[in-house]
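Follow-up to my earlier ticket, as requested here are the two runs.
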Amino acid sequence: MKKATAVTCLFLDIGGVLLTNGWDHHARKRAAAHFKLGWAEMEDRHRLNFATYEQGKLTQEEYLGRVIFYQKRPFTRARFRRFMFTQSNPYPEMIELVAQLKVRHGLKIAVVSNEGRELNPYRIRTFKLDGFVDAFISSCFVHLRKPDADIFRLALDISQAPARQVVYIDNTPMFVQVAEGLGIRSILHTDYSPTCAKLASLGLQNDEGVIYETG
């Protein structure tokens, strides 16, 4: 039997894997209710702008100007931004797992994510993702966004890891399929335990004895 190629690099999404989603449908709906905004109009304006925003071609200020503050509001931009930021929460088990795998197996870790300007650096800093991630191939930095296969090609170039040595973890089926189409072994993340089991089957066993300090 042919031996499986060793994994040297992990590609990871942020939202839905390491952290909750930063500004998804649910967060926007909470914002509409909290600030008493018209949901349908807000969502229509979001849909027209979110791809440009996630590709880093709009700042958060510009995005908010188009989606929320195109008319006078009884609340400030600063208050709305604070609300946006507080929607982010960590998945501590997943953060610890990836950090431990990096130490135990000497892995390169690269994030491949779709996130907007300001929000993405905030999430990186707040949850200390830069304590164990080697490279952030974020849509707002590289002006490409999933499902464009070029963002994965760029991640391969930056990590200098052959596709056959990479494992990608994402909670969106289409993004997993795109990565697999490039020869990247991928895991559709649903929860901590199944992902642990799939990683172990690829030779990436977790060592509960390793403690990795991220802050």
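Run two:
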Amino acid sequence: MTHSRRHWMMTMGLGMAGLLAAERAPVSAQPLNNARAMVSPRDAIKITRLEIIPVHSLRTIFVKMHTDAGIIGIGEGTVEGRISTVMAAIKELEPYLVGKDPRQPAHHWQAIYRHAFYRGDIVLTSALSAVDIAMWDIKGKALGTPVYDLLGGPSRDRIRVYGQAESVEEAKKVLAEGYTSLKTSVSRSRGRLSRYSENPDFIQGFVEKVEAIRNLVGPKVDLGIEMHADHQPQVAMVIIKAMEKLQPWWFEEPIQHQNLPLMAEMAKKTHIPFATGERMVSKYQFRELLQAGAASILQPDITHCGGITELKAIATLGDAYYAAMMPHAREGIVGAVASMHVCAAIPNFLAHELPSLQAAVGRPDVQRSYLGKSYIKKPLTMTEGHVVLAGNFDGPGLGIELDNNLIDNERGVPEWEFPEMWDSFDGSVRDH
């Protein structure tokens, strides 16, 4: 009995010493940063309302999630060209969210997704993306720590980003900006879109374009090829074989993702990896992609796929298949930064896209940049083709704030729409 009591006291003493040591551990090792936390972890927080901000110049929607604690989380979700549809879907989530604690994003993700009954729809998951990102932002701000710390801590100190160039002149600018990687597209050749089967001259047009860019950037620069699923499988395979000699970084969206077994068949016929996933949502669709062996580079978009919660799940699933993550991020800077937080915390990251400005029309007086100028108060900076965590998004939550003039900057900018694509021979519809 005496021995048992002494053993129990010793065990308790060691346990208390461990707790005290944990409390004295450096703040950087703790999920709670007392110096920057906006509330105590024990304080109640409730969502009070959603503020929905359409950002037409970036084809997307920003969200401000307000709470009774005064903490405002920001998020982003979109189906570009269908802004009003997604805005309505986000508004439909508000009755569920109001009164809930935003520090339980994983729980609320499950409730919103599974209670919807109809699943796998990009409108639902895009609306879910917006509120999920905002909840993670609130959680990080409440604890005074970056989102990537809440996801397990950083596994790297910088995020590699790549540029895009459609000509030799554009490629020169991309290199001058400091990028060490880029991509170019093969959608139109000789001034037209492709047909179900193509002639050598049409294929040669693509080869000449990409070869000229490769000769400029040299063999040490990673050069990806964006196919955007614009070609029928038989033409896509001919283009792929013609490009192999240029050693592309990857082929993006070689065909539409609806036929994963066919994409897998094509992937086996080339040594260049396939990348796809920007139009796919949720871990369930990516599971099917990976099981089929259709691609080894995954491109989920955090503003489509279900937010931070789901992007992290997709990355974990991909890691089990030795697949790399190269997130799509063509819309807004809020989603891009949220995505970078996930990429900072995962092992299987390759590179990251930056938002496009292709739809930034209507306000020539507003200066914009791929790194967030006119959208966030402190735009990101790029260092040797990377966005370094420190000084860019290492603050609490997402570590960024929306520009105070955002709504005024967006006033009068029309909603962007996908261009119609027709066959120049007979007027039939072509893929986009």
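The only thing I checked on run two: The radius of gyration is 24 Å. Let me know what else you need.
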